[in-house]
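Input.
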Amino acid sequence: MTIHIYNTLTRKKEIFEPLEPGKVKMYVCGPTVYDYCHIGHARSVVTFDVVARYFRDRGFELIYVRNFTDVDDKIIARANERGMDSRELSEEFIREFYKDMDALNVKRADFEPKVTEFIEPIKDFVTMLIEKGKAYQIDGDVYYSVESFGEYGKLSGRKLEDMEAGARVDVDERKRNPFDFALWKSAKPGEPFWESPWGKGRPGWHIECSAMSSRLLGQTFDIHGGGKDLIFPHHENEIAQSEGAFGKPFARYWMHNGFVNINQEKMSKSLGNFLMIKDVLKSYHPEAIRLFLLSSHYRSPIDFTEKAMDEADSGLDKIYSLLERVETLTGQTPGRESESDGESWKRFAEAMNDDFNTAKGIGVLFETVRNTNRILDENTISLSPEMRKSVLSEHSDILKIGSILGILTESPQAYFEKKKMKGLADSSVDAALIDKMIQDRKEARKTKNWAKADQIRKQLEEMNIVLEDRADGTFWKINK
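Output.
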């Protein structure tokens, strides 16, 4: 099956055709390490972790690069606030990044370069741009001339003349154009610096990714990813630098994930609503966080609310409850019984082939869970060989889908025990039983047996289960 990707550069879905058949080269902008990671960072990292998992499952040879910006104005400012060396600060938050991402079951990228490890390639890149007439030096600073790149603005859709007309940028009279950006910054007192042909200084933000990607993936590679907030100016400037230097296309497909909002408001420091991953992990199982982050299409915004997280949490309980039920009834232990792919996996793959639509794929996952529970409900005494084969096939597909989403990594017993120990859920809750009672209530209401429907709701309330009847079905959660 063919993979289609929405390309920000062309503003349309395209058939994915890698430069080299069977090989994928992907670069994703990583964090600037001056603080703990928030839930917005997690969305980008988890999104591209799933993309990487899927490419590899499809048999592609993937080279995945995700960088660390470990020298930057924000890092220097935070280090000065804390009275410590900026390198020491960045190393501290790189460790914290790994702690959070390991908890979220994010796999390491193949290369995770730091800017401070690529100073020489960065200086070489800046020199090349100066020699090609794309950049100029003033008092130890080096700027890229945006007017030297005729296609500037092609990624973001912005036109330079329109931006200039309404420009509200810091005025530096030394620059030829207000939108010219720094490739190399001259050192200020107390800042880290490196020797260069232009004097002591350090790299600008944008040049680092052009230098690292070209060294690790080549002058042209397949996919460049990151958050939507990076389209302009960061990714726009990367294109100008790289294509200005090499005279050939930079990245062929551009993928950008949407924002995470908090209770329908954009995350911002002014609102004080930044949610750090380490804090969310105190309240929710890490796989529930992944399930939430993947429950909307990666290009769409997603709203973090207690209700949304509770739904993801109870949804994960349902999946693990089914796995436990299947394994108890069939003797099947965790792991795939067969490498043959069932219908559920094929439908999941169709969703993923359509621009990595995890939202639709998760819908397939829960439909599979419901169908398997129904089969087990209808065959409570014993399973025929045919039914057993069908159930085990669905079990196998669920685990394979989970491996792409980065969930279902534990045995059901370990999962529920861990939640119990952390106080994240009532391990006595039988999700399959609750679903059965909700279905019985639905049938009672359909036949207008209101007394029975009310009785079932009351029984669920006594079990500490809250129901919510919506247009798309009845949902439940534990009343914490």
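The longest helix spans residues 306-330.
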